[in-house]
Specification:
This protein has helices spanning about 1-30, 40-55, 60, 65-70, 75-80, 85-105, 110-130, 140-155, 165-180, 200-229, and strands spanning about 65, 135. The protein has about 230 residues and is mostly helical. It folds into 2 domains: about 1-30; about 40-229, Rhomboid-like (Rhomboid-like fold).
Amino acid sequence: MLAEAGTNRIVSEAHRDKALATNMRELIKDILNPRYIPWLYLVVTFSALLPTAWPELRQYLIYNRLDIAHGELWRIWTGHLVHFGWPHYLADGALFIVIGWAFQQSLPGFSRVSLLILPAVVSVAIFWFDPAMNIYGGLSGVNVGLLVFLACRGWQKNWLDWFWPAILGIHVIEVFLEIRNRGVGGGAIRFDDANIHVATVAHIGGAFYGVAAWGILALRTRGTSQKTE
């Protein structure tokens, strides 16, 4: 009996290890599948590498309130490519690629449109609601918008799933702490310019886009399904 139980346990563990190895192979295969690689996100991340490696390029790309007011509107988009040091770039860039991979699995078209609209939403939010912020850089506002959209969509699929409410809750807490601390500091990230602080309005603007885009897409999907019925 004991020998049989031991044999069954060994067989069970072998099956479990085999299943785990199979799942890992499938995951790696999906990640490396050219169809699922977020090429546009990689291009954006590589583009953001340039002003990080050569800080002298920042002056031509960074979100600068005065320059935008004088007609240099490209900064509304290119400002998000500028990062204040390698820790800032690596944190934003890594999350941006992971988010891009998630979108490439399900909504590649929507994510491409968002990469055009969302940076402008974040920049306009800063311009109108935070006039004291003269310069801004980074993908964090864009990341928040895309991540909030994914969280809302994931929660919609399963309202009992704790993971997505936790993601949304973390963002709410983060924004609350930023407001309480008046944006001073950079959390775990240290910027290479002591005058730079967390852009709370950028995160709020990104979150607004994420919720609004999810709501619009959900209504369109519901309308399409009702017409089909």
